[in-house]
Design goal:
By secondary structure, this protein is α+β, with helices and mostly antiparallel strands. The chain has helices at 5-17, 53-63, 89-96, 100-108, 125-132, and strands at residues 35-38, 49-52, 78-81, 84-88, 115-117, 120-124.
Length: 139
């Protein structure tokens, strides 16, 4: 069995590009908009059931394999590493009532130390506290 779904997608895209496979209308409603290819068996990557986005989601809900994927929202907003709590910049931006862009700029300009995990930027709780309560000079 081929275990990598992205590889199946690659095979389908290549077959569509070279004409071995033709994208068809939705098998349920007949629409030609937002067509997805569904695989019942990943061992047969060119056996595709063509469904519109709505019917593809409904099929996965019926099969119990639907994961409500929301870009950026499903990634962890808070992580713990060696007992230290790290927050994604979107969380910090909300806490500080600024935009995520502003927080990214602070990180980029080394005003606040950050940790990059993949394409997400995390900031330690202690760093946030230090940034918000700078050391009082003269004490």
């Amino acid at each position: 069995m081929i275990k990598h779904k992205p590889y199946i997608g690659y095979i389908v895209r290549k077959a569509l590009a070279d004409g071995r496979l033709i994208r068809m209308p939705c098998e349920v409603c007949g629409t030609t908009e937002s067509i997805h290819g569904h695989h019942n068996d990943y061992d047969k990557p060119l056996e595709v059931k063509w469904l519109c986005r709505t019917h593809h989601i409904l099929l996965h809900k019926k099969l119990g394999t639907y994961a409500n994927r929301k870009p950026n929202r499903e990634r962890e907003k808070i992580i713990m590493i060696f007992g230290i709590t790290y927050y994604r910049i979107v969380v910090i931006a909300k806490m500080m009532n600024v935009t995520p862009y502003t927080v990214r700029e602070w990180c980029k300009n080394n005003k606040i130390k950050s940790l990059k995990k993949g394409r997400d930027i995390y900031i330690a709780e202690d760093e946030i506290r230090e940034f918000l309560e700078p050391e009082r000079k003269g004490e």
